[in-house]
Each structure stands twice: as C-alpha cells, then as structure tokens.
C-alpha cells in the first residue's frame, strides 16, 4: 500500500492531523497498536481499563514492542482495586480527563470539520474549590457573582471587580502588566491588584487553573480571559465535557471523518520496522519510508511519518523532529507539560457541591432532630453529575503544598456511566520535590478521601459515612521523551504532549495538529517533484464543508 | 442567549445507528432509499464509511437517526468497532441471493453482542428480495454493476441473469425461514427488503425506532442538567444535558414518511 503519510497513534493530536490531511486530499494510513482508538486520550470500558492497567503493570517481556515498552515507561506505579464491578460496558473511562473551553481551537475545528455532528457534549454544571471536608466554595467569576458574594468585603469586591475588568480586556499592552509578564501570577494579584490571599487563591487556582503559585502571570491572564469569554457561548459554564468519556470519543470522531475522506485505518497491529530509503531509487514506489506491520498483507510505503513518541524507535528518534507548540499561539504561552499522578474511581453516591452558606446552615441543623433537615428549596442537595473541583495547594492534609489538584466527576449525564454511578478523576501535577518517592496511591489517597467527603452532604445526619468507591485505579503518567531536533525538513514528525493542564489539553492538541498539518502539507508537496505528481492545494486547515453535507440528509456519498 | 439552548433539536432523540455487512449486500443502497428514497443501480463501494442523518417521526416523538454506513470491503476491520461502540441500533445486512453473506452477518451479530452497548437494538436485514421475486423483472441497469464491483466484492449472481420467474426463485440462496429462525433465536428484528423497489425499507427503521428505549435516552441526556445546585439554581427549561456545537443546526429537516 502506498500513501502520502502514515500516522502512528490515534490520540487527539494525531487524529485531528489525520482528518485534516485526508480532507485536504492527501492519502494517509492511520495505525494504532491498540485495538481501540484514542491512544493515551482514549476512553475505555471498565474491563478494557483493567486490561490496560494490567498490561502496563505486568513484568516486561522479551521481545516487547517499542510501543509497549514506551507505555510501560510512561505509566508507572499502577495499582487498582480487584473487585469486579458489573455493567462494565456502560462505563466510558477516560485516560485523559479534560474540560474543553467553549471557545478555542478544538471547538473551532469540531465545527469546521463537521466532526461536531458525530458526537455530543455536556455543559459543565458546576465549578468549585474544595474548602474543607463536605464543603465546596464557588468561585466568583462574573460581576454578578462578585456583587452577590457574601464572603467578600466591600473593599475586596471593588478590587476584584477592578481586576476582572482588567483581565477581560487587552491587558497585553496595559501598564499594570509591563515587565511583570513572568512574575508569579499570585504575586501579581497581590501586588498590583491588592487582592487578599483568599481572593488571590480563588482567582489563580479557581479561575485561571494555575497549578502552582509559580505560574507566570501572562499565560494565566490569557487563560482567564479565554475562559471568561467562553461563558455564555453554550450556556452558563465556560466548559464542555464530551459524551462517552470525553476526548477519546472526539479523537474517534476525527478518525471517522478521515475515513470518510478515504483514510485507511489499521488497528491492533504491531509495528515491526520502519526503514528509511536513503536513495529514492531503492524504493520501487519512489517513497521515502517502508513500514512493516505484524500480520499485515503488504508493506506501507510513504513520504512522511507523523507519530506519537511511543512508536518511535531509538534509531528513528535520532532524525525525528518535534513539532511543538512552544511559540506563542492563540492559546497564549502554553504551560510546560509535567508528569501527573492520577486516580480514577467509580462511586455510587453523588458528589455534592455544598456551598459555605448552606453548609453552615446545615451544620447548625446537624444538632437538630432529623425532621428538620430538608432545607429550603432543596438547593442544598448540590448534587452534581458533571463538575470540576480545584484543590488549591495545602487545602488537603498530607496533600501537596505546592501544586493545585483537579477533580472532574462525570456521570450518566455525560453518557459515561450507568444511572446512579459516577466516575471521579483526580489529577495531581508532579512538579518535582520529593513526590517521586511516593506511590501514585499514596499521592492520591488524600484527594480521593477529600472528594469522597463530598458525598455526605452537610444536611445528612451527622456522622453519615462517605461513599466507598466501587473501583479505584491509581497511576502516574510520566512525560514521554521528546526529540531534541525541531528541524523543519525532517520527514518524521513527532507529537509530544504540549501541555498537561486539564483545561488546555484538548486545545493544545488541536493547535499542535494544525502546526503538523501545515508542516506536513508543505513537506508532502515538496516531495511531489515529478510532473505527474500533482501538488495538493491547501488553502485552510479545514476545507469548507461541502454544501451537500449541510443538506438535510445526504452528508457523504 | 445561545443558539444551542434554543435549538430545534430539543425534542428529537438522537439515535446512533450503524450498518454492517459484507461488501455489496446493499447497505448504502438501503440507507439511500431510506434517506432520499432513491436507488442507484451502480452504487460504488463505500470507502471507509459514510455518515448520514434522517429524522423519523414516531407518534409524538422525533428520532434523529445518525447513520454510519460502513464499508463492507474494509480490509482491516478497524473502523467498525468505532461505529458500533456507542450505537443504539445496528442494521446487519445480507444479500438473499448470497449464502455467504448471511454467514458474515452472523459473525457481525456475534461481535455486536459481545462488544457493543448491551442494549443495542439489532436488525437483521435480507436485502435484494426483488431479485427473487417472480413479479419483479430486474432491469438491465442492475446488470451493469456486476462489472463495477471491486476486488473482493463478489458480484451478485442474480444480477447478470434474466428474470423469468423460475430463474428468479432459484436465485435465492437464503430461505426466508432459515434467516428468520436464526434472527428469532439471536433476539434480532428481522426483515427482507429491496433497496431497489423500496420494499420493507421504512419498516426497518420504524420498527427499530419502536424498540429504542427513547425515554431512557432522554432521561440520560436531559436528566441531570437541571441540577444547577446551590449557586446556579435550576438551569433554564430549554437547556438539556447535551450541547449542540453547531450554531446553524436549526434548519428544518424533513421527517421521513414513517
Ligand atoms: N437488485 C438489487 N440490487 C441492489 C439492491 N441493493 C443494492 N443493490 C445493488 O448492489 C450493489 C451494491 O450495493 P451497495 O449499496 O453499494 O452495497 P454496500 O453493502 O453498501 O457495499 P459496500 O459499501 O462495498 O460495503 C449496487 O450495485 C446496488 O445497486 C437491491 O435491493 N436489489
Ligand atoms: Mg456501501
């Protein structure tokens, strides 16, 4: 088989690239070593997740594929509960829990490519900050919130308001920012806007999703502005969560579009060899690479390889080039990727986001006879189906003192769990320090416990015990190696993760895909030297959707 | 405020449906008949997959079928799992004039029962009954496609044949009773259809629609959206769990005749 490009890995970035290349008119073969789509971004059924974990946790075997060796290095300290949970196939568990800002490259691409028609999204219901066991604080993000807030003094309200107006504007040229682009955001909030400690924490961790007090000001401001602009596009929240486990499903959608445009898909095949043909005369097809897959009828010949780092052997790495999103982009300056300790848990009682006020009221009620526990309007149940929680540094005993930790819960409403079950994802950035000596489970347990404390609402009978998870998986996701070279002429393009931040992942992957797409189009057209090989004219990342695709019925024939 | 919140999709239930089956059994033709009420005598093999939508009215409800028509000749069997994974319905098609196509259909059914959503509604569809009906002379144009069919897609034997009634009968390789018995045993809906004449096509989709647990789907997409919780209060009535990303989806779409 002879194609323009072979893409290894079906993670979001590679899948978006594959779709864009196919739609532009390049021929591609898209390969994944797994039998499922999505790579490190995939969503799996519970049985599949267990298999996934066990395969990576088991002792290395001889003759292991490059991919599996790379995966075993990437996913470490894996431990899971062993009890079986029924209804495995009704769960879609994500390896890359993500919240997607309503405005940004991914949403743009979903709409422009037509992939948005293939999948569904749910609006985030709630966003809060962990306060103490059982209590979640909401984050004042709009003028109305600030105005209504009972926690803030009048002076603080005025200061916060002033900051929010600043952050919504064209701050890049503002005098307040000049020379302070890289100072820690936290200091900036305190020193320039005189926000008190508590408010500064809310803004830095709860609105801009800083992961540490050291995060630089400019990128935090850029995120904050984008998130606040996202509010109202699809509803009251800035963020969306994909149905069926999130970006794994989104990645599949892009693969589908690629297939509809003629992309060839090969899954579950091990990559045996990639040989690069120095002289094109050696190659019967005139292509640069010949690729062999296990149990695959013919060789794949191509001019360009685009690959997630896990498929690249040491030899190939030497002349591979990383396509990074390190240059300032639409998204602003990306935050450096970091390793993440993760916990995935399944629970059978809802998490409640009980605000301070109702919790205090309920605390007063706790002593009262149980008949009085129904609070006015029942607002205080605070049950969430799909919600996001920030643990700021030092907010949990024996948790991190330097890193903010993020918790995403998704339930039936996002089609990711059966009725009455919820999936909890906790992500803890590992920013160095001594954290590396601890196991994933040790790192995550305090946060899981804190999350579970939210399953007993303050209005419960005092002493009600928190939910016990039906399933838990802990692991650490390390960073993959990244080629040192960024040589623009290399025809092996590698896609290292551009960020680890839960709210930026999807957009960063899409931006990376766009960069790769343009680079790939250029390289492929350059390799079409002979007269009979017509160059593919590429005008935009996504060609306009065929009018026919917008017609009521006939979308693709 | 947002187009999505006021979207016309509000009351329609989205049903993801996938078509599976051997190459050239008529999957694309069945969909084309359902969606556009057309037939193309020399339909080209599907490459990769195709995506179509069609609304279907059922009593007071509107179903919006999102149809994934897969390629029977897909060589690596890599795409299909992606399509049926979260599908609520599957139509497994075979060709009544080709016994091996029923065998292929059975392997699809097995795979679906093993891997797909456990509540998936599966319909087994024996297509091209026009070729085995004495009263239905097959047109010349049908004969053309035998040549057009690609590599591994074997030509339908009947298509080159003339159409006297005796010959037509003898073209049938899969007796209706046999397939029906299998369908019953495996818990499938069963139909015989002709994409060419339109016979039985709409029924496939209406009968599936009747078996889809619509209320359950509605509950799961809508159910939790209202839980605004303490700060936000209840979400607006128009807001459902699902968000439609396209701003321009409010166009009226014709409901099918069913
Ligand atoms: N006589 C007759 N011919 C049919 C019928 N349905 C489809 N055909 C013909 O059979 C051939 C194959 O039909 P397709 O709809 O392309 O088959 P398919 O299952 O989509 O094939 P792949 O896309 O390759 O998997 C075409 O030439 C059709 O015209 C039918 O009901 N009767
Ligand atoms: Mg077809």
Automatic annotation (TrEMBL), chain A:
Family named by the database record: Belongs to the Rab GDI family.
Gene3D superfamilies membership: FAD/NAD(P)-binding domain (3.50.50.60), Guanine Nucleotide Dissociation Inhibitor, domain 1 (1.10.405.10), Guanine Nucleotide Dissociation Inhibitor, domain 2 (3.30.519.10)
GO molecular function, one term: GDP-dissociation inhibitor activity
Family annotation (Pfam families): GDI
Source organism of this protein record: Obba rivulosa
Protein name from the UniProt record: FAD/NAD(P)-binding domain-containing protein
PANTHER family documented for this protein: CHM, RAB ESCORT PROTEIN 1 (PTHR11787:SF4), RAB GDP-DISSOCIATION INHIBITOR (PTHR11787)
An annotated GO BP: vesicle-mediated transport
GO CC annotation, single: Rab-protein geranylgeranyltransferase complex
Domain of life of the native organism: Eukaryota
Upper lineage: Eukaryota, Fungi, Dikarya, Basidiomycota, Agaricomycotina
Matching InterPro entries: FAD/NAD-bd_sf, GDP_dissociation_inhibitor
From TrEMBL, chain B:
Biased composition (Gly residues): 225-241
Region (Disordered): 133-177, 225-244
Entry-linked InterPro entries: P-loop_NTPase, Small_GTP-bd, Small_GTPase
UniProt KW keywords: Nucleotide-binding
Pfam name, any one: Ras
Gene3D superfamilies linked to this entry: P-loop containing nucleotide triphosphate hydrolases
Keyword Nucleotide-binding included in the entry's annotation: yes
GO molecular function, one term: GTPase activity
Chain segments annotated as coiled-coil in the UniProt record: none
NCBIfam families linked: small_GTP
The name this protein goes by in its record: GTP-binding protein ypt5
Organism: Obba rivulosa
